[in-house]
Design brief:
single chain, 352 residues, alpha/beta, 5-stranded mixed beta sheet, 14% strand, binds pyridoxal-5'-phosphate
Length: 352
């Protein structure tokens, strides 16, 4: 090894799902929304002109912050926006997890958490889910440097209720507790109202899934003003202009179309429910999902083999090979009814 090599920060990066780009493929591997964004977004895009890009964007992204604050009946100083919730979560890790004690999160969860912890050199300890993929509240009652988990959890799809979250908050008054609500709009109840009672609670959401805007990159955090201010101070110490002008404008348009949001999320939920029935008929089992994906295993066939077979039919689902506990599971995103019909038909062929 050369001397300079020892000075390189070595990290094992997060591996996102594949982004194949084939005609007629059915892409059910990264939990994108099968429906296009609101027509208000389309219109806002048409209304944009390239000349406005001469100037720096508003570093505070105030228009977007205000639109989100209005939507959730918050003050503007209770909202932080970033380049997808990945950016927001990374900023939150950097801002809030600064203890010698380990932060806590589940062993089966969003696989970016341990990557950020390693990158920022934050000690962490994973807490095993039980055999039904439930979080054990008692695991989060010990001393720690902070707590984070998604609700519903990913990739399990399992939702906890607000009493459960409040139980965790009551045991963790001295650290920041982050709830990653990337999938909350598909049937869960948001813990947002709890920020009034628990000033150490941060809620993180995204436009990527329920608002059909994964390609635009908008995420946001909501919490008390002191938390938001602290995140802003870190952000301005790193890169002031994270939100570009187009994203701000299109994001405002997206959040203003509540009717379209309701319509598409209800369609995804309806498709999910009928897909659950049909997957069960085919011999799959899974915990009840409250997200836009189903995390399923089959009693007679290996997940890896099903995954490979589906790929030959241009159907992409997600398979996590590295975590031993979930090696025989597939995460199947909810597409349109038609896409799910094709998936079921192809599975039927394979499994007979
Ligand atoms: C998709 C996802 C995110 C990140 O989404 P962005 O596209 O960066 O907003 C964060 N957390 C979980 C659990 C997710 O599944």
């Amino acid at each position: 090894m050369k001397a300079w090599e020892s000075k390189i920060r070595k990290v094992v990066p997060y591996v996102p799902g594949e982004q194949p780009n084939q005609k007629n493929m059915i892409k059910l591997n990264t939990n994108e929304n099968p429906y296009p964004p609101s027509l208000l977004v389309e219109q806002a895009k048409v209304d944009m002109d390239a000349a406005s890009l001469r100037l720096y964007p508003d570093p505070a992204a105030s228009e977007l912050v205000k639109a989100i604050a209005d939507r959730y009946e918050l003050e503007e100083n209770q909202v932080f926006v970033g380049v997808g919730s990945d950016d927001v979560l990374a900023m939150a890790f950097l801002t809030f997890f600064n203890s010698d004690k380990p932060i806590l999160f589940p062993d089966i969860t969003y696989s970016f958490y341990d990557v950020w912890a390693e990158l920022f050199r934050i000690p962490y300890q994973v807490q095993p889910l039980d055999e039904n993929f439930r979080i054990q509240a008692s695991d989060y009652a010990k001393e720690n440097g902070g707590v984070i988990f998604p609700n519903p959890n990913a990739p399990t799809g399992v939702l906890v209720d607000l009493d459960f979250i409040e139980g965790i908050l009551k045991k963790n008054t001295d650290v920041i507790v982050i709830i990653d609500e990337a999938y909350i709009d598909f049937g869960g109840v948001s813990a947002l109202p709890l920020i009034k009672k628990y000033e150490n609670l941060l809620i993180v959401q995204t436009f990527s899934k329920s608002r059909s805007l994964a390609g635009l990159r908008i995420g946001y955090a909501m919490g008390n003003a002191a938390l938001i201010q602290a995140m802003q101070d870190v952000k301005y110490s790193f890169n002031s202009y994270t939100m570009n002008l187009f994203t701000i404008r299109l994001g405002v348009a997206a959040i203003q179309d509540q009717a379209y949001f309701e319509k598409t999320r209800e369609k995804v939920i309806a498709t999910r429910e009928r897909t659950k029935v049909r997957l069960k008929e085919l011999g799959f089992s899974f915990q009840d999902s409250m997200t836009n994906f189903i995390f399923a295993t089959h009693k007679n066939y290996l997940a890896k083999d099903i995954f490979e077979y589906l790929k030959t039919k241009q159907i992409y689902v997600r398979y996590f090979s590295s975590n031993l506990r979930i090696q025989n599971y597939l995460r199947i995103s909810i597409g349109t009814d038609q896409e799910m019909d094709t998936l079921i038909a192809v599975l039927k062929e394979y499994l007979r």
